[in-house]
Design brief:
The complex is a heterodimer of chains A (330) and B (446). In chain A, 62% of the residues lie in helices and 0% in strands. By secondary structure, chain A is mostly helical. In chain B, the strands form four sheets. In chain B, strands 4, 6, 10, 11, 12, 18 and 19 form a seven-stranded antiparallel sheet that branches. A five-stranded antiparallel sheet of chain B has the order 1-21-20-3-2, covered by helices on one side. The chains are: A mainly alpha (330), B alpha+beta (446).
Chain lengths: 330, 446
């Protein structure tokens, strides 16, 4: 079969599949008793992931180099990453809510790539000399995968913010370690809650000063994490996955630039925005271990990180300069 | 007198001490760190929005006095704040230094104590200690050994005495962030070191010529330029490889390092992504030009004429020269070309196209035979020395290792036997969901 025809079919198929997937997740959430819908959604994500992978491999075979040379290819690589990270997140959290936020984004990206991009931007182009290096594969693919992870993680933070909108929340899943403690009030044991010192190092045995309980210990059973706890924690873990990838991606870019042009950092807009992204998510990771900041404050940082990743990935193209530009069409 | 003096001294000492502690505590504060991260991010944005390092008239044109952008951002304000070179302004660098101090303070005030605390663990002695752990339960089992073998299988390191048990896993999750901070500090130090001791030069050299590095664009206060000029570089050849459809495939320069007596010390053909390194100085292929053309008029001797770049814009570069066809220079033709592929165009005095020629193809012009023998390219080299790179690379390596280690969640499990009652409980710092799953698996196995 002709590879070019295969590609044209595949990009439209992945768009259609993701569109149906999105509807399944949405309707499935609106009517929770239709349990088969989110299952179809998961299947849809798998199909879309495989379709995009096939599309990229077909391009790889056709062009003879790693298919990340222009906007079209990179958008599909991003879709592949988002669907892959979505499947990881859904599996980790066991919650179908993840798809409600990730599927529209994945669908939007494929729609843009397959329908809005002019055909001349969809063809694979020969690589410019500067990009002919083995570093290309390493640097770009790691960066794209980190974008995917950070996007999915911050989308989950947005979902978390929507779910907790206007509500006081008491979270367990904070990374200070306080999350590991019971909601003492709920356990009606007569502890003086103020005297429980919960600090970062929490070698809990020694620091927590407890007054003797007056009631006898009732049989202990573990306390389950709530839905928003799970959402919050998986968002953290997925961003935690994207952050090392972003770090490695930026560093590999720096080393490549130093090997090719003699400077590991030149403050080019893309570089700077990658740094900004890194700083914002570093702030998020630190906000999570700040006393009294659990829950919404870090989630707001993560949610704003979603915008920052997009500016870093696409916004910088509008400046249209440098090696990092994929080109644009207006 | 002396008594009151010394007591004053003590109180002064005391307040200085107090002040330092206060400063260090403030610098080590996490909220300050978060604020600094966001401030650096914010100011970095300005440098991507405003064009950096442009000539003054660029800013005069784009940021006029009236109407001022946002009502205040005129070109004078912009230049005064240094927004035309954000990343090298004193205030940006000061924030970076503060950030570095915060990193160091944080490592000593928070991370190392936290690591210590993770290493000083204790057995639980009373069942009520389990109450505060969310993931704790009273279980029925035969012995602590049973619990021990199950959690050992899960990869925990287990410590046990006759009635109590403690286990931990993922201490690398506590060490990782420390390594990240050390890596960051090394990168910052390496960058400072490089800025003071490195240099950056550019040269445009015609094929066949020899040069000493001279055109230094940047040089640090302590950089050793004599060392960089202690040898010469000979450009043996420069050529461009084109793809069949005429696009540039790759640029190549055949370079030799020669000493002052002309003896060859090293030789390498460089291309983009493949520089020449010599004595800590690196030569990168970055640019190219056409420097001259070799021609022969009738059967006279071969002469070489310089070519000049006619357009300054990057797109559609054109080079040209003027070839006299009469000894008194009263008549001549123009030769124009746009690359090193060999096709050249000849124009007469009126600007009319005479013909297109290729090397070694004779043409009759104004009654004489003109033969273009060769186009001579010149290579644009970027020459760089950055002694800070080893330190920066070490920092990079630590950053990458640390950041991956930091993904690991640090988990602890306690168990206690009280008569025939068994208690088990645990906590983790990152992967709450995965840890919950693990604890439930352990409980099921018991």
């Amino acid at each position: 079969m002709n590879l070019v025809n295969l590609q044209n079919t595949l990009d439209n198929i992945s768009f259609a599949v993701l569109f149906i997937t999105m509807l399944c997740y949405w309707v499935g959430t609106a009517f929770p008793n239709l349990t088969f819908l989110p299952k179809i959604g998961t299947t849809g994500m798998v199909i879309a992931n495989l379709a995009v992978a096939t599309l990229l491999i077909a391009r790889w075979i056709e062009a003879g180099y790693f298919p990340l040379s222009n906007l079209y290819e990179s958008l599909f690589f991003l879709t592949w990453g988002i669907t892959a990270v979505h499947l990881i997140a859904e599996n980790m959290s066991n919650s179908r809510l993840v798809g409600v936020v990730t599927s529209p984004v994945a669908m939007g990206i494929t729609a843009f790539a397959a329908l809005s991009l002019p055909p001349e931007m969809q063809h694979s182009e020969p690589l410019v000399p500067a990009l002919k290096s083995n570093w290309l594969m390493m640097h770009v693919s790691v960066m794209m995968f980190s974008y995917s992870a950070l996007m999915v993680g911050s989308l989950m933070a947005i979902a978390f913010l929507i779910l907790t909108q206007g509500k006081e929340i008491q979270l367990r899943g904070s990374s200070v370690g306080t999350g590991a403690y019971r909601n003492v009030k709920k356990l009606s044991l007569n502890y003086k809650t103020e005297s429980v010192i919960l600090d970062i190092d929490n070698s809990s045995g020694n620091t927590a000063v407890l007054t003797k309980p007056t009631t006898e210990v009732i049989s202990l059973t573990p306390e389950k994490l709530s839905l928003i706890d799970t959402l919050d924690n998986i968002s953290y873990r997925i961003i935690g996955l994207g952050f090392p990838l972003l770090t490695i991606g930026i560093i590999s870019g720096g080393v490549w630039a130093n090997e090719a042009w003699g400077s590991y950092w030149s403050w080019d807009p893309k570089e700077t925005w990658a740094l900004i992204t890194w700083l914002v998510f570093a702030a998020y990771l630190h906000a999570r271990i700040t006393k009294g900041w659990q829950g919404k404050k870090p989630a707001i940082l993560a949610a704003s990180g979603f915008v920052v990743v997009w500016v870093c990935y696409l916004g910088v193209n509008l400046l249209g300069k440098g090696l990092h530009s994929y080109g644009w069409f207006f | 007198m002396s008594i009151s003096n010394s007591s004053q001294n003590i109180s002064v000492n005391y307040s200085i001490n107090w002040f330092f502690r206060k400063v260090i505590t403030t610098i080590a504060d996490l909220r300050l760190a978060i604020l600094l991260l966001l401030i650096i991010a914010f100011f970095s944005i300005s440098g991507t929005v405003i064009e950096q390092n442009q000539p003054i008239n660029y800013y005069q044109e784009n940021y006029p006095e009236s109407p001022a952008l946002f009502g205040f951002l005129t070109w004078q304000v912009l230049l005064a704040i240094g927004l035309n070179h954000v990343y090298t302004t004193w205030w940006y660098l000061s924030i970076l230094v503060l950030f570095g101090s915060s990193l160091i303070a944080c490592t000593f005030r928070r991370q190392l104590p936290a690591l210590k605390a993770a290493k000083i663990w204790s057995f639980y002695e009373e069942s009520r200690q389990f109450n505060k752990l969310a993931l704790s339960a009273e279980v029925t089992t035969q012995s602590l050994d049973n619990i021990n073998s199950i959690i050992t299988q899960k990869g925990y390191q287990v410590y046990q005495n006759d009635h109590s048990l403690y286990a931990q896993k993922g201490i690398s999750g506590r060490i990782g962030p420390i390594i990240v901070h050390i890596g960051m500090i090394l990168v910052l130090l390496g960058a400072i070191w490089g800025a003071f001791t490195g240099f950056f030069a550019q040269e445009m050299i015609a094929s066949g010529e020899t040069f000493t590095i001279q055109n230094f664009l940047e040089a640090g206060k302590f950089s050793n330029l004599n060392h960089a000029q202690s040898f010469d570089i000979k450009v043996n050849n420069f050529w461009i490889k084109y793809t069949p459809d005429g696009a540039v495939d790759q640029f190549y320069s055949d370079l030799s390092v020669v000493n002052k007596t002309g003896e060859e010390l090293e030789r390498k053909t460089i291309f983009v992504n493949q520089p020449l390194r010599y004595n800590g100085i690196t030569f990168y292929q970055t640019n190219w030009s056409i420097s001259g053309v070799k021609i022969q008029l009738n059967n006279s001797t071969i002469c070489q004429l310089p070519m000049v770049e006619l357009t300054s814009e990057r797109k559609g570069r054109i080079w040209g020269t003027w070839i006299p066809t009469k000894p008194d220079l009263s008549e001549g033709i123009s030769l124009i070309t746009k690359d090193l592929q060999g096709t050249m165009f000849l124009y007469d005095m009126e600007g009319k196209l005479i013909s297109a020629v290729r090397p070694n193809m004779p043409v009759e012009v104004n009654g004489i035979t003109l033969k273009v023998l060769d186009l001579i390219g010149s290579t644009g080299l970027q020459i760089k020395s950055d002694p800070g790179v080893p330190l920066v690379y070490l920092g990079f390596a630590l950053l990458m290792i640390g950041v991956v280690m930091g993904y690991v969640s640090f988990s602890q499990i306690w168990a206690l036997q009280e008569g025939d009652r068994y208690f088990i409980g645990g906590k983790t710092n990152r992967a709450q969901v995965a840890f919950e799953k693990e604890v439930y698996q352990i409980l099921e196995q018991l």
